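2024-03-11 09:14:02 DEBUG pipeline.ingest accepted 1 chain
2024-03-11 09:14:02 DEBUG pipeline.ingest length=148
2024-03-11 09:14:03 DEBUG pipeline.predict start
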Amino acid sequence: MDEALCELEALYDELDIEEDEAGELPVLGSLLEQQDLPDWQKQAVLEADAVERGYGTRFIAVPQMDSHEAYRDMEDFIATVRNDHIREVLDVAIMGRGAFRRFKDVLLSYPRERERWFAFRDARMAKRVCEWLADHDIEPISGTGEKP
């Protein structure tokens, strides 16, 4: 199976609009010609139609992260905090409703831990994204065309 390359920043530009044998856009194209839309809006509608027609085959939905995963990330991060006081404050912050907001609010008082959290969260997210892409036989590349 050929591996697909996926550069997330360029996905929008890579949408392909198929033409019929006469070299004209499908029916949607002729309908758009009757509309009083700027060219950029017509192009956006055609690209959205191409996505819709290819959904599930050429285009796949990117899943939302589960809140349980995000909560687990906070718990795992807290376990890495060396300062006992900060760790305890964060443990209390994630109890009950509003855990995500309180967690972020606590980190505002501890800039170094906040920066560590962002790095931790980004690394977890990158791992999930790469795993998801691999599950769909898509090879990730960076915005510069290099593999991450």
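2024-03-11 09:14:41 DEBUG pipeline.report Residues 89 and 106 are 7 Å apart (CA to CA).
2024-03-11 09:14:41 DEBUG pipeline.predict end
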